[in-house]
Amino acid sequence: MKLTIERAALLKSLAHVQSVVERRTTIPILSNVKLEGRSGQLSLNATDMDLDIIEAVPADVVRPGATTAPAHTFYEIVRKLPDGSQVEIEHDAESGQLTLRSGRSKFSLACLPVEDFPVLSGGDLPFSFALSAAELKTLIDRTRFAISTEETRYYLNGIYLHAAASDGVDVLRAVATDGHRLARVEITLPDGAAGMPGIIVPRKTVAEIRKLIDETDGEITVSLSETKLKFAFGDAVLTSKLIDGTFPDYERVIPADNDKVLVVDCKSFAQAVDRVSAISTEKSRAIKLALEKGTATLSASSAENGSAVEEIEADYASTPLEIGFNSRYLMDILAQVEGESARFAMADAASPTVVREVTDGGAIYVLMPMRV
């Protein structure tokens, strides 16, 4: 294999694929990126056996061929080359070395046989539909903060994506929960998604997809089966295994009859929570919310730091209520509210609180209270 490629184009694609490669792996070939030069392009492929990414980038291919190279080392070399430079890549099959030249720089990298590189992509994916970059971004950004990091409850370590009906309208719904808070966001069901199985998209896959969304404007093609999921973004294709587990019945934890309603200006409320939480302990992050007609009083205290109290105007007309929350969880939810006002529906100090945007019914957040 022999080819010449622009450094900027190579670096952009390498940045995408090398982030899939684990820093520590017991299988040497998984530390490598597969490079394949053919008909005017260089194809880069990396995998960790659960997630696979292939990206094509234009190149002047003199001699077609394929090899593998250490992903992180290769990326670091290209990253440190001068802007605007041309990179010549040549693989000698006899020596098994990959030579990289740019200006007066020359690097030789040891390669592993391309035949050893595992193939994850492929297989039958019966359901396929298109989403705009903005729609996929909405589903991810407004739910990912609630993904659990607790490995024992592995079925919560991702976003649950499924078709559902909401007020007689078919929707594509994304749900994430860690047991303390829950995020549920929906968009109109795309053509081709009807009848799709409910799938749990792993946390690492969500992070890699999110990086690619920022660099695409067009539609993203989503294909899936019960065990595998594929996203096609222009020149990049990301294939992932799904979490093999059953997502809990999240509808049961969304209360329908919470009768105490609080409406606050989202920005000023979030700022007040942020200020008061400076006093709360690092471990509990607890703050108390005391509600009376027309006002909401936030307070926090700790033996080490002292106490804080802040009162804000609020639209509240029910009986007085005191309820405690983890301030970080509360801030995470308030950060997702895109409108000016947030609506809190509560029953009592021990029951889940439902948070919505006043103007947008497509997103629901549930937050478990704390004893303060």
UniProtKB/TrEMBL annotation:
Residues 131-249 form the DNA polymerase III beta sliding clamp central domain. It is found in: Cytoplasm. Transmembrane segments: none annotated. Residues 1-120 form the DNA polymerase III beta sliding clamp N-terminal domain. Residues 252-371 form the DNA polymerase III beta sliding clamp C-terminal domain. GO terms for molecular function: 3'-5' exonuclease activity; DNA binding; DNA-directed DNA polymerase activity. Its main location: cytoplasm. SUPFAM superfamilies: DNA clamp. GO terms for biological process: DNA strand elongation involved in DNA replication. Keywords: Cytoplasm, DNA replication, DNA-binding, DNA-directed DNA polymerase, Nucleotidyltransferase, Transferase. Forms a ring-shaped head-to-tail homodimer around DNA. Confers DNA tethering and processivity to DNA polymerases and other proteins. Acts as a clamp, forming a ring around DNA (a reaction catalyzed by the clamp-loading complex) which diffuses in an ATP-independent manner freely and bidirectionally along dsDNA. Initially characterized for its ability to contact the catalytic subunit of DNA polymerase III (Pol III), a complex, multichain enzyme responsible for most of the replicative synthesis in bacteria; Pol III exhibits 3'-5' exonuclease proofreading activity. Belongs to the beta sliding clamp family. This is Beta sliding clamp. It comes from Paramagnetospirillum caucaseum.
